[in-house]
Amino acid sequence: MTLLRREALILIGAGLAGGARAAESVRATAFTFETPEGGPMPLSAYAGKPILVVNTATACGYAGQLSGLQTLWTRFGDRGLTVIGVPSPDFGNQEPLDGPAIAEAARKNHGVTFPLTAKTHVKMPNAHPFYRWAAAERPAETPRWNFHKYLIARDGTLAAAFATQVEPTDPRVISGIAAALGQA
After folding, report:
1. Which of 30, 39, 104, 133 might form a disulfide with 35, Cβ 3.0–4.6 angstroms?
2. In the annotation, is 29 catalytic?
């Protein structure tokens, strides 16, 4: 069974097993992305830690935010924060690269050392199961462009969402991360 199919079944099962109550038991750590090399990147590997998941694009006008995300990774990584970039072609096809070339461009142009996934759809109707889950959790706060940020709490719940225009180093993002890191 493919990773995406298994995750879709988790979401469907949660909905069929008792509505909202069952859906609440689904956590971000139930989902798996693919690495640029094609291997699995399970969010369960980061269970118990806050995770900032951001849809990225190396050719986007907001690509400078990759540097801000790296700043967060450098500043808070030792305290437990994981930053994960999710390159997406969904908004103006501003991610023209594929596979390891995306990570190489992000490293070369913005100093990125945090994990990046393989190119992934984040917009409906083809959205990855993580993004379907996040949309169900916060329907009014779905990605409308590149660099939409989801902050996952230590318990795997969706703690906050930040629109594209909110810079990674914005005080609202920093406060959200600090609160998530402060959770026991």
Report:
1. 39
2. no
What residue type is assigned to position 91 of the chain?
Answer: F
Chain length of the chain: 184
11 inside domain? no
Question: 29, 133 in Cβ contact below 8 A?
Answer: no
Q: In sequence order, what E strands does the chain have?
A: 32-34, 40-42, 51-56, 82-87, 149-152, 158-162
The predicted-structure confidence for 75-131, as pLDDT tens digits, reads as follows 999 999 999 999 999 999 999 999 999 999 999 999 999 999 999 999 999 999 999
Q: What is the pLDDT of residues 122-168, one digit of tens each?
A: 999 999 999 999 999 999 999 999 999 999 999 999 999 999 999 99
The total of structural domains in the chain comes to: 1
* Assigned domain for 23 exists: no
pTM, full prediction: 0.87
Q: Is residue 21 part of a domain?
A: no
Phi, psi of 168 (to 5 degrees): -55, -30
Residue 46 lies in domain: 28-182
Is residue 90 situated within a structural domain? yes
User: CATH code at 50?
Assistant: 3.40.30.10
Catalytic residue (one of 30, 51, 60, 152): 60
